[in-house]
Specification:
This is Aluminum induced protein with YGL and LRDR motifs. The chain contains six helices and 14 strands. It is of the alpha+beta class and 249 residues long. The strands form three sheets. It has a six-stranded antiparallel beta sheet with strand order 2-3-1-9-8-10, covered by helices on one side. A six-stranded antiparallel beta sheet has the order 4-5-6-7-11-12. A two-stranded antiparallel ribbon has the order 13-14. A hairpin with a 2-residue loop joins strand 4 and strand 5.
């Protein structure tokens, strides 16, 4: 799976902006490249916001890929959730709902029920996963990886500062050059809040990243393990709050 998101809707951390290799959006460059190396792929144009791309070919049967669109919310998901039944009940979903629908509903709960910590919601998803979500209505992005980094997941910025996120490392290298880096495990990224950790939302530090030839090629992010852990917050607030999470978290 792949998403290239305009810097106007997904401003990447400053440490990740290391002069990407090409313009990923110009003339559909990276979308075309993705389609050429992944059979049976499809690309969804998000207009000026970028695009998302998906293919079910050559996937790991233990970490299947899923895609869904609900009310202009686009979501790419890879992996599996272990506590599916619990989350279906929590979010009021029917028995046929799968992992990608759970993620969309979790996001909609965050967006529509007021200021509720995104870290608490992602922490409640148990399993091996990575996902990319884009809300076309609010022009918001929500990206996350499980705490063990079980699904290979990478990101970077292209030559124009647009965010590139994919489970295909070679695709990200093609578009981002020295900006390429693994997406930090146990972390999530939002348009308005930037990069955060589940347990240490304010304690991520950028550290130099060295490639296989020994050259420094940008920075990656790690949690300061010595910082105090965030205490879990109480349950979901009542329905009907006027606040919109996607605008202020």
């Amino acid at each position: 799976m792949l998403a290239v998101l305009n810097k106007s809707v997904a401003k990447s951390p400053d440490a990740l902006q290391q002069n990407g290799a090409v313009s990923a959006l110009k003339d559909g460059f990276l979308a075309t490249h993705f389609s050429s190396v992944h059979s049976g792929s499809f690309v969804i144009n998000l207009a000026s916001s970028g695009f998302v791309a998906y293919s079910s070919a050559k996937q790991n049967p233990l970490l299947p890929r899923l895609f869904a669109v609900v009310d202009d919310i686009f979501c790419l998901f890879e992996g599996h959730i272990e506590n599916v039944a619990q989350l279906k009940q929590q979010y009021g979903l029917n028995k046929t709902a799968n992992e990608v629908i759970i993620v969309i509903e979790a996001y909609r709960t965050l967006r529509d029920r007021g200021p509720y910590p995104a870290a608490q919601v992602v922490r409640g998803i148990q399993g091996k996963f990575a996902f990319i979500l884009f809300d076309a209505t609010s022009q918001s992005t929500f990206i996350a990886s499980d705490e063990d980094g079980s699904v290979p997941f990478f990101w970077g910025t292209d030559a124009e500062g647009h965010l590139v996120v994919s489970t295909d490392s070679e695709i990200v290298k093609q578009g981002c050059g020295k900006s390429f880096a693994p997406f930090p495990k146990g972390c999530f990224f939002t348009s308005s809040g930037g990069l955060r950790s589940y347990e240490h939302p304010n304690e991520l530090k950028a550290v130099p990243r060295v490639d296989s030839s020994g050259e420094v090629c940008g920075l990656t992010f790690k949690v300061d393990e010595e910082s105090p852990k965030e205490k879990p917050k109480p349950g979901m607030p009542r329905v009907g709050s006027d606040a919109n999470w996607s605008q202020h978290y």
